[in-house]
## 1
Amino acid sequence: MKTETYFVKSPLMGTFYRSPSPGEKPFVEAGQRVNASDVVCVIESMKVFTELRADRAGVVKRILVENEALVMKNQDLMEIELP
Amino acid sequence: MFRKILIANRGEIALRVIRACRDMGIGAVAVYSDADRDCLHVRYADEAVSIGPALSRKSYLNAEAILGAARRTRVEAIHPGYGFLAENADFARACQDAGLVFIGPGPPCMARVGNKAQARKALKEKGIPVIPGSETAVSHVQEALETAQSVGYPVILKASGGGGGKGMRVANTPEALAEVFHVAAGEAKATFGDGDLYLEKYMENPRHIEIQVLCDAFGNAVHLGERECSIQKRHQKLMEEAPSPFVTASLRQAMGETAVAIARSMGYTNAGTVEFLVTPQGAFYFMEVNARVQVEHPVTEMTTGMDIVCEQIRIAAGEPLSLSQEAIQHHGWALECRINAEDPEAGFMPSPGTVEALTLPGGPGIRVDTHLYSGYTVPPFYDSLICKVIAWGEDRSAAIARMRRALFEMRTTGIHNTAAFHQKILNHPDFIDGHLHTRFLEML
């Protein structure tokens, strides 16, 4: 069966964080269901934190970047499968 | 005097301290993260030591790595600059325990000043006017909501561990407060290594005016007049000036004496800044003491002819203040624009990247403090401040004219900068008339 997916992209260059602060539980895990506008990760650039939210409801298929990795503008961060 | 100092910072302030060291004949040791190998502070220092990965938490906030570098290079003192560990009492104590002089107030005083909620409480008891707010740090949303209920909305959350607008959020309703609490705590934790917040009543349209003080170890304390810092974006200062167009000679004296009294009552030593909110009627309320050199210290240097960083080093080396209050003269007017790597056309989105070409301003009355050079890559890991342009003139309008000229000359290609936005402020009739308040930019 063919499934449709979309990517959560970084709007700017910065550090990718999977959880709200070090040691805390990640916002999402692979396989987890998310609702539209749920926070899925945070990008820190120049000490400014930008929360990224899911555009549409779905299931997190893959997380493409390691926690605390440097990411570029427009880089794919997560793949989300639509129901 | 010290033979050698380690500078536990990066960017323009690291250069500023290294320059003071050179002027005083003191050796300078730089520290740098993996992201900062090609920084000017590494090149300008006499020695440079790598202290870890790019993330601040693993390098510039890593006290052990910094103390290790200090041991290896056998420095006698550490200058913390601003931000990072500059207001961390544990770090100041660790320096002392390692036999190093921390260039700033002593650890107990640092702890007193750093605990902003307690500092406010102690000063309130001494009859100094403070803004109503939490008596201690608010650790949970529930506590914040209860305090907000008692002081009345709107309220503002601030980081206990430091300033600079980080960890700061305004809330007009309980719902908004609950929502911004975690974001503010997260920012505070990431920036200062301490997620504690305190809460106070948010005042409408006040001015932010601060007094620079210098206190030596012999009980001498002076103030160097005020800086007006009302031009702020998201509680972060963008443009500062000295003197303030609002402050009269009598208000200056009252605020100056109050600032000195506050510093004395806290047993403060070294350079510090006492921040006040000032109402349109001229009433002033204590906000906090910044126990460090401030980003905007150059405007005071330009109008007094003093070198605040050299004074810091002399005080830390156990020398008495070089000037009495009567001997401190103010001449002319100075403005500072903080140029950030941000895109003013895209909601001030951070704009890290490589500076392909750079043209810096110059000419009479202009001072530029920057770590930029052509080909330098501004990393996304740290503050967006890339350049401070300072303009001096005989009076305010002469300083404004020179600042306009300087910003016209400034160009960066490859990254965005905020110079054009500053130009817009300088041309605004209310700015020209000196009608400033902390929400000036929201009204723009």
## 2
Amino acid sequence: MSAPKIIIIDYGFGNLFSLTNAFRFLGIEPIVTSSISNIKTADALVLPGVGAFDDGMMGLKKKNLVKPILDFADSEKNLLGICLGMQFLFDYSEEFGKHEGLSLISGAVKRIPDPKQNKNYKIPNIGWSELNKSKHLKSWKNTVLSSSKEGVEMYFVHSYVALPENKKNILASINYGSNIITAVVQKNNITGLQFHPEKSGPEGLKILKQWVIQIST
Amino acid sequence: MNTTFKKIRIIPRLDVKGSNVIKGVHLECLKIVGNPQDMATRYYNEGADEIICMDIVASLYGRKNLLNIISEAAKNIFIPLTAGGGIKSIKDIKNILRAGADKVAINTYAVKNPDFIPKAAKAFGSQCIVGSIEAKLIEPGKWEAFTDNGREKTGLDVIKWAQRLEKLGAGELLITSVDKEGTTKGYDLELMNKITQAVKIPIIACGGAGSPKDFYNTATLGIDAIAASHVFHYQKHNVKEIKKYLKNKKINVRT
């Protein structure tokens, strides 16, 4: 079968080069665009992002991308949010005041509580952490993590954490000092990764590849 | 595994001049050691956690060859890449990120225009802005910040400048000991310890690695990341060996 048409949404935030490069490595040429008509024709959407929540949402709004993304999510085609892009999936974030997100998954985004117990754990969390399977879940079968082993290490850069209302939306989390931080969320066709799979070495690429396989089947 | 400490990142650093990776002692007496793309790829395959790539003559001559180097180096590596050298504007940062870097390291221009750091942090997020400091011991327990590979004095006290950079919005600090750089005699532990105590943002220690033990001694300070070039460039030890050594000594590293 032909390669799926993957669109990376370009709204001025995020390292699009790395993400494009990672998909290319997997044999897929993604389209980087902010064109609404183009988004409608995609098989799957990637919502990337780095930086502050409010600035990012403003970026989406300025390009009139909020409705097209919500419509796309309704269509039951696959949507992947990465880092800030994952945080957008929730109802609101408390970064620099309360700001509304896309409300595709119920829950809030809040600052990582001070990991008091050990000053070695700083905020922002910059670095590699091990993914643990959520206790609400039997296995990672049929998810983006189905080819990953528990304890696999991913690269994180963030100061805020997503708190889904329904814990069953959490596939994986990390331990960060005394905190348990949401790392992977899924609700039907919508998946979110707090870490950067495109920057997490061969294991990160494996997760992206699994997502591509999901789209194609 | 020891989970009370965060995983320490091991970061090979490539100093480039023209199209070559070079290496010197105290940031001088430079010798060519390879090409950036091959070396970045080799370190990625060895299990490096990140790569730092610095154009060391950019701020001396205002050259702009860093973009080409970054876009070549970034092609085959899927780990974070920090680039630095000659950054003077928001546009410079945009171009470097577009070429494939994830973070930028800023030294000279931050010293001349401290107000640039908050502007850059606002535009790209603090996580993207690495404050780079070249430190020289000037009297016992006191270091001065230098620019242009340890050639130009700034009159700034390293500890105070580090704290100022944190306040201005830098997300990480790259601390290079000019005294130790290229000597393979070990990191400036006193300096790294003082910096770690003085600021809350992640610290990348750089300059002086010669043996696995040097990495260990630095790791025990509670530092976040350790950069090295000489030991890796001359293949005295590869990244995998260093990590294995640290892991055996109960230091938490990515496998």
